[in-house]
């Protein structure tokens, strides 16, 4: 199915099936506010999730390991760890491992759970594994609790049918 190029650019602001009929301005503003908030926490969630993964797998999370896995310099990790500390999500000492606070661990666990649901959903739809892993990494930060619940319910029905 090929989209009408004239209306394709309006797809995110028009009503489904009604190209050219814009959604309400307040609704549009709420969408963008939600997306901006998700972008704001996306990187923080990625870091706390990785720190939790490293602690769970190796017993510690070192800046050098985080830098390697995130594809950034250690100075970038150091700056992010300061942000995590300022938000009460992590603790660290100079030249020591990084640890999550209870709030940081909760955030990591919630992010992992969202990721798992989105990944299972994409795989159930037949999305190739490599693509599903990459897409789930982005979607997990933007999926609403309402949509996540629908995905969980759908996966549950699929599991019970098998």
Please characterize this protein's 3D structure.
Keywords: Activator, Cytoplasm, DNA-binding, Manganese, Repressor, Transcription, Transcription regulation. In the presence of manganese, represses expression of mntH and mntS. Up-regulates expression of mntP. InterPro entries: DtxR_MntR_Metal-Reg (IPR050536), Fe_dep_repressor (IPR001367), Fe_dep_repressor_sf (IPR036421), HTH_DTXR (IPR022687), HTH_MarR-typ (IPR000835), Iron_dep_repressor (IPR022689), WH-like_DNA-bd_sf (IPR036388), WH_DNA-bd_sf (IPR036390). This is Transcriptional regulator MntR. The chain is globular, with a radius of gyration of 19 Å. It folds into 2 domains: 29-101, Arc Repressor Mutant, subunit A (Orthogonal Bundle); 107-161, Diphtheria Toxin Repressor, domain 2. The strands form 2 sheets. It has a two-stranded antiparallel sheet with strand order 1-2. A two-stranded antiparallel sheet has the order 3-4. Helix content is 69%, strand content 8%. The chain has helices at 5-8, 25-58, 63-70, 74-86, 102-125, 129-139, 145-161; strands at residues 14-15, 18-22, 90-92, 98-100. The chain has 7 helices and 4 strands, in the order αββαααββααα. With 162 residues, the protein is mostly helical. α3 (63-70) crosses α4 and α5 (102-125) crosses α7.
Mean pLDDT: 85
Query: Per DSSP, what share of the residues sits in E-state strands of 2 or more residues?
Result: 5-15%
Strand order of the largest sheet: 1-2
CATH superfamily of the largest domain: Winged helix-like DNA-binding domain superfamily/Winged helix DNA-binding domain
Shape: globular
Q: Which percent bin holds the helix content?
A: 55-70%
The succession of helices and strands, N to C, reads HEEHHHEEHHH
Task: Report the strand count.
Answer: 4
Main sheet specs? 2 strands, antiparallel
Structural category: mainly alpha
What's the CATH topology name of the largest domain? Arc Repressor Mutant, subunit A
Please compute the radius of gyration using only Cα atoms: 19 Å
CATH architecture of the largest domain: Orthogonal Bundle
Low-confidence stretches: 1-11
| Helix segment tally | 7
Q: Identify the CATH class of the largest domain.
A: Mainly Alpha
């Amino acid at each position: 199915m090929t989209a009408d190029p004239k209306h394709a650019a309006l797809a995110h602001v028009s009503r489904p099936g009604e190209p050219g009929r814009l959604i309400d301005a307040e609704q549009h503003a709420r969408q963008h506010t939600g997306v901006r908030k998700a972008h704001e926490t996306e990187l923080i969630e990625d870091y706390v999730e990785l720190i939790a993964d490293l602690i769970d797998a190796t017993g510690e999370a070192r800046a050098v390991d985080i830098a390697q896995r995130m594809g950034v310099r250690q100075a970038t990790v150091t700056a992010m760890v300061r942000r995590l500390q300022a938000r009460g999500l992590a603790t660290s000492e100079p030249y020591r491992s990084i640890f999550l606070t209870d709030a940081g661990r909760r955030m990591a666990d919630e992010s992992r759970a969202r990721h798992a649901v989105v990944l299972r959903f994409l795989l159930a739809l037949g999305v190739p594994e490599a693509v599903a892993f990459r897409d789930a990494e982005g979607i997990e930060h933007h999926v609403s609790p309402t949509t996540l619940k629908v995905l969980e319910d759908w996966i549950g029905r699929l599991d019970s049918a098998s």
